[in-house]
Known about the structure:
- Two copies of one chain form a homodimer.
- Chain A has helices at 3-22, 26-42, 44-60, 65-71, 75-90, 129-140, 154-170, 187-192, 208-217, 240-252, 271-284, 293-298, 327-337, 350-359, 376-379, and strands at 100-103, 109-116, 119-124, 144-148, 178-180, 201-205, 230-234, 261-267, 288-291, 303-304, 318-324, 342-346, 364-369, 386-388, 396-398, 404-415.
- Chain A is an alpha/beta fold.
- In chain A, strand 1 and strand 2 form a beta hairpin.
- The longest helix of chain A has 20 residues, at 3-22.
- At the A-B interface, strand 2, helix 10, helix 14, strand 13 and strand 16 of A face strand 2, helix 10, helix 14, strand 13 and strand 16 of B.
Amino acid sequence: MSIESMIGTMAKDARTASRGLRGLSRGQKDDALFKMAEKLLKRREIITAENQRDLSAARDAGLSPAMLDRLTLNEAVIGAMADGLREVASLPDPVGAYPVMWKRPNGLQVGKVRIPLGVIGFIFESRPNVTVDAAALCLKAGNAVILKGGSEAIHSNIALGELLAEALNEAGIPQKAVQVIPTTERAAVNALISLDDDIDVIIPRGGEGLIRFVTEHSRVPVLKHYKGVCHVYVDQSASLNMAKEICFNAKVQRPGVCNALETLLVHEDAAPGFLPEMAKEYESAGVEIRGCPKTIDLVPGAVAATESDWPAEFLDLILAVKVVGSMDEALDHIETHGSQHTEAIITNDYNRSQRFLAQVDSSVVMVNASTRFNDGNQLGLGAEIGINTSKLHAFGPMGLEELTTTKFVVYGQGQIRD
Amino acid sequence: MSIESMIGTMAKDARTASRGLRGLSRGQKDDALFKMAEKLLKRREIITAENQRDLSAARDAGLSPAMLDRLTLNEAVIGAMADGLREVASLPDPVGAYPVMWKRPNGLQVGKVRIPLGVIGFIFESRPNVTVDAAALCLKAGNAVILKGGSEAIHSNIALGELLAEALNEAGIPQKAVQVIPTTERAAVNALISLDDDIDVIIPRGGEGLIRFVTEHSRVPVLKHYKGVCHVYVDQSASLNMAKEICFNAKVQRPGVCNALETLLVHEDAAPGFLPEMAKEYESAGVEIRGCPKTIDLVPGAVAATESDWPAEFLDLILAVKVVGSMDEALDHIETHGSQHTEAIITNDYNRSQRFLAQVDSSVVMVNASTRFNDGNQLGLGAEIGINTSKLHAFGPMGLEELTTTKFVVYGQGQIRD
Lengths: 418, 418
């Protein structure tokens, strides 16, 4: 069977399964999630053995230690995956809620009810634990999902997919609700993103190259972000101690992720009292500072920033720093170089806090908090499948509710249109 | 200047204008809408003169009387356009509302605030009054819009565009917030749908061919429906008088529109008491019935339906009719042949009404009401720019709220992530 026809069959099976998922009760879905958690723990030896096959191939291929670490499924990671499944079970069921209902002058009652999206194609790289997280979120939101993981994780993903399907089956849920694509061939991605009849949305997660490829070639709508070039703007009214704590946390706590700080903007009145001390803290943590001329005057250890540093997502202990003459200059900088992911202002000024919140066109805009909080779990969504920086459907982190849509329901008593 | 660079400049101007629209108050936007209405009435002679140029070219090109009618801007149509502008002014401003806000254990206050989408590309055919309606809705929702109307309406649209820009200017709003593409060349559409940096969403409205072309080639997300193959299912428990009134209204009241009835499904227990009488009413209105074998037994005037009739959007006084043995058969038929637009059940049975509402995966699902009510205005959204049958962002009619999205705002007091 060709890759195209295999993926076509998987998509049709997913579409059929999604019909069966529409009417499931929360109890049925949670039961499947608990069964998945049990099976994961019971079968951890098989899983880790399959994962070893992936790891030894990855070592032979010369993958970096960081990549090998992300690929590894050990007891601790499997335990965390099982915990994750139980956490998703503990979240409320988004399906079936009526966010609004109103009555028309002619007596029609018009409401919106939350329903699953249908079939989701999820394309991701390396970490096999994401397979289980994504399957859990899609299932709880009533969606069928087709998972295309990174080729390095193929044996781990196939083993996890089998276990998930078994759990679904035992819970009386169509087992094609969760399907892992059992091939490493790139043609599978091309096939998946062409099936706009049977797949409702594609969510790609990984490097910018993968995401650009999917976005440019997909006939199915795509929810994604390319990169997170996150800014903190330290206003002239900021508490400098708070600014230091937040800027340090946002850059250093986990520099390799999309909500880490990449460019620090400092008002010129705050810069002399803030930047030299801040730079010392950054220096002690090994952060390289690439600054504008005014920054370099204040921070002798800084190197000169080039134009390419302003829109850069370093994902590393590197920080671009610019001194600005006004908040307007900061807003212009963010508008020009930002990625609409996460921006924060540090300020004690009421009016500027409000103007920053209103004017910055990013999925999450913060006052006096670390950009690292742009994460479904940290913001209170329970869990997330990704972050969307296109404006459609769900701008920002996507949790269970964002994996649903609403349809209109109309209760009539025989009304006809004049 | 090439078409591509002209459209590129328009898109960049729209993006710049959209920044200025973010912070506008409702009063400013409504002021512009009232000024547009005044100008429209004051300048009706110029508008109708430009419209005459379009009409005479259309007559020379041999357009049908129905097409000429849709293209005509006379006193009555211009008056209705002005009323439409004032109606949009009377609707609440969707921008700035906080649908939800909550507090996290660490004290962070997390909310969602409604914001404009940004820049909308609206591609539509023939009727020039749509130019004004769409501009009004986009403006009120805080979006910049680029309008590409049908080539037959080019002079009318350019004249309307000038007037709208003048009104914006007088109201102190960036006049590039509303731009009409001043060319009939198809290349303008191709250019528009390639600009994913400066345009946030494309909304095409018109024939299926146009919409398929846009969907297949656009790099910008598209909100659209291909067609409306709407079903009414007459259950065995239906009040047959109510069923007759609704089925007649849904098919006959305005057969050329997307929410008109195209396929009638009748439970076999209801068919003998319902179909012969219903068919007489249809006959008197000139409706051609294309039926399944059981329908033909009951309705002597019916012709045999072919497979291609079931997924057909007739947009005419033609109706496909099928007798089904159960509601499950009706649900299967809708799942197979429907367009996820509008479906209704006529029933007095509580359980079947609920099951129909839950199981039918369409943007609007109704009990005991005419499919003709799937329309933003009729459902209480005030007005609509179109109906979306893709599941993303807004499933169903799209009014002002559907022309916005939400971003997260976070109010902190110095929180950092552990």
